[in-house]
Amino acid sequence: MPQLSDIPPQDRRRLWETMLLIRRFEEHIVDVYGQQEMQSPVHLYIGQEAVAAGVCLHLRPEDYLFSTHRSHGHCLAKGADVFSLYAEFYGRAAGCCRGKGGSMHPCAPEVGILGTTAIVGGGIPLATGAALASKLLGQGRVAVTLFGDGASEEGAFHESLNFAALKALPVVFVCENNFYATASPIHQRQPHDDIFRHAAGYGIPAAQVDGNDAAAVYFAAREAVQRARRGGGPSLIEARTYRWKGHVGPSCDWENGCRPKQELEQWMDRCPLERFTQRLLQSGDLTEQDIRGTLERTDVMLARELERAKHSPPPASSEVWRHVFHETK
Ligand SMILES: Cc1ncc(C[n+]2csc(CCOP(=O)(O)OP(=O)(O)O)c2C)c(N)n1
Ligand SMILES: [Mg+2]
After folding, report:
1. Residue closest by Cα to atom 25 of ligand 1
2. 264-274, pLDDT tens digit by residue?
3. Which letter does DSSP use for residue 294 in this model?
4. Host domain of residue 38
5. Per residue in 217-276, pLDDT tens?
6. What CATH number is associated with residue 41?
7. How much distance in Å is there from the Cα of 183 to the middle of ligand 2?
8. Within the chain, which residues score under 50 in pLDDT?
9. Residue 308 located in a structural domain
10. Is 325 a member of any domain?
11. Closest ligand relative to 121 C-alpha
């Protein structure tokens, strides 16, 4: 059983800082969303931060990442720019998609995020294709796709696992099993909730991990990314976790009868950020002073970038048809 001490000290710190960045990035959205100026629908990732942080720590800027409608944490962990994300959510010209994509479609090609699709399961074949290209071109790039339990019900998931196994592609499939697709619990949709078991049918190595344990995700992802990089083919990781907010928007959804309040509270008691913070305090990697300092620096930066994004100009009306269709001249 790997220990915290098996994670290099700089990685422990980065894991924690990345989770903190994601958590606070979204809490700033929660704070301003009611002003109704940020018009993009937002699918918040709060509660699932350990997965993005633990996976992306092993990726290089040129490695590919394909995300979903719940994209913020993935993009931040891969290194996307805070300002260009916030500006995108405000529909501003300086946004990463020039204000035309919103929160569900971010791109950051400079860090391997070529585009994001909100079609459930849509990122899985794209990552498989990127991994095929990387292999054919001998680029040594790994492709990772993070997706939900709902996406594992799409044909594209099974087709992609089959093809990736057949061609031994450098792709890592990461399923964030948060037990819900919109308001639909997994036990009403699937005969069992062990998503990692699908990998056996395709002969792909798989791991099921506690997705609220950053170290557990880190170790599983390290093995999978290393396997992909050395030509060992695809892997599937199922990270079991939970989202704290409703499917979309900044409020919780237990009030609407979408899930039991008690269930949410049990998962909140297992907060991935709080658990990892406590571990790092115990190991001496963090002090209370470090925590206060980092939190303050992170909040100052996020507040500044959010304000800057909010006050940046919208796209000119002459831009409305640009970048919508492929331009041939
Ligand atoms: C092909 C497709 N079907 C349905 C939808 C509507 N939809 C958007 S998100 C979502 C649930 C996805 O659940 P999951 O994959 O578990 O991701 P989570 O929201 O839990 O992160 C659905 C059904 C869609 N966007 N695309
Ligand atoms: Mg889900």
Report:
1. 119
2. 999 999 999 99
3. H
4. 4-312
5. 999 999 999 999 999 999 999 999 999 999 999 998 888 888 999 999 999 999 999 999
6. 3.40.50.970
7. 9
8. none
9. yes
10. no
11. 1
